[in-house]
Amino acid sequence: MAKILITNEGLSDNLGDQAILYVLRNIFINHEIDFIDFTRNYDSKKLKVKNKKIKKKKPLFLRYITKLNWLIIRAKRYLLASYKSYDLVVIGGGELIRNNLTFPYSLFLIALLIRSKKLIFGVGCEMKFSKRNKILFEYSLKRISKIILRDKRSAYNLKYSMNIHANISSDVVFLISDFHELKQQVKNERVSFAFQSYSAFLSNNQYISERQYISECVKLIETKAKLYKEVKLFHTTENDALFMLKLADAYNNVSPVKIKYVNINTLENLIEYIANSSLIISNRMHALIIALSYNCEIEVIRSSEKLIGFEKEIMHDSFNITKVKHEIYSTINEEIFPLLDN
Question: Which residues of the chain fall short of a pLDDT of 50?
Fold first, then answer.
């Protein structure tokens, strides 16, 4: 039995990130597994919908102190992990090679402090990086035993931005139906929408007002409302949930047919809900992947480069979920499990 450390965003309120951790734990179920969240320093909590108070921006020196404290805690966690002599450190999945304030430092600390073999598996990669983040990522990625990214877009971005080669294997969440047996299997004649929050949408698009974004969402809902018995909204993140409540109010104010918002706060509930829907329309990738895993129809809202690339790879006649799963298992058996034997 090998000792494996998994590190990703598994404690996030994003149920898609929780799905990744759930699948990885099942892939390595026959081994001793530890987990450290990639960026968080607290225990997992159920996703709750609550109104957030607007926080005042901290003074610059306090922000630096907060960042330094975060770095010290992360360094301590990974340093302690280095003494456990893991056979393999699995980093993934999600969009972890990303130009933000925490991911480059987390990967840098793993590469610097943990000497075990390291695998990046099922991860997405952006195209553009700041000079500082690029240096951190280049240092870290050159110390990874094997890099397996989740799509062609990510592999191209990594090669283009840092001249680092990566293998490709589809997102591990495609396997989720192999590990979670549904409590009930009754396809409801409903279409379900999961929209990104306004702030998430803005991070990948040119500026439009929140009112404009809500208006575009309402128009999309209206095109499907006449075709299905039920039209519902659901979410996969806490911020999305707050936006969906606002969207439901906006839609119900202009439509004679009222739309219902479904409050889902656990991964199990999310899987059961998606699997028993007729059609999932979303710009949240893992909501779409879970739907495909359970043979549900999907429509991709093309609101980012990531989603455009995802749609190109899966929305064609030759896409077959059984074939996708077989290819992922082949990667696991031929490229990942051998790392535990060497």
Answer: 44-49, 51, 54
Q: 265-312: per-residue pLDDT in tens?
A: 899 999 999 999 999 999 999 999 999 999 999 999 999 999 999 999
Q: What CA–CA distance (Å, rounded) separates 281 from 224?
A: 10
Mean residue pLDDT across the chain? 91
Geometric angle at alpha carbon 91, from 331 and 273, rounded to 5°:
80
Q: Is the dihedral of CA 38, 265, 125, 296 positive or negative?
A: positive
DSSP category for residue 236: S
Q: What angle do CA 226, 227, 229 make, to 5 degrees?
A: 90
State the residue for tokens 């018995």: 229
DSSP 129: -
Question: In the structure encoding, which two tokens stand for residue 189, read together?
Answer: 């004649």
* Of 273, 304, 310, 268, residue with least CA distance to 289: 310
The per-residue pLDDT for 41 is 72
For residue 62, CA distances in Å to 33, 54, 146 come to 36, 18, 38
Q: State if pTM tops 0.90.
A: yes
How far apart, in whole angstroms, are the C-alpha atoms of residue 230 and residue 277? 10
Element (H, E) at 202: helix 198-202
The beta strands (E) that lie in 274-313 are given as: 279-282, 297-300
In one-letter notation, the amino acid at residue 293 is S
Could you tell me the strand order of the sheet in which 190-194 lies? Answer: 260-261, 230-233, 190-194, 279-282, 297-300
Beta bridge partners of 89: 5, 118
User: Is there a contact between 24 and 92 (Cβ–Cβ < 8 Å)?
Assistant: yes
Phi, psi of 258 (to 5 degrees): -80, 140
Q: How far apart are CA 77 and CA 237, in angstroms?
A: 26
pLDDT for the residue 42: 61
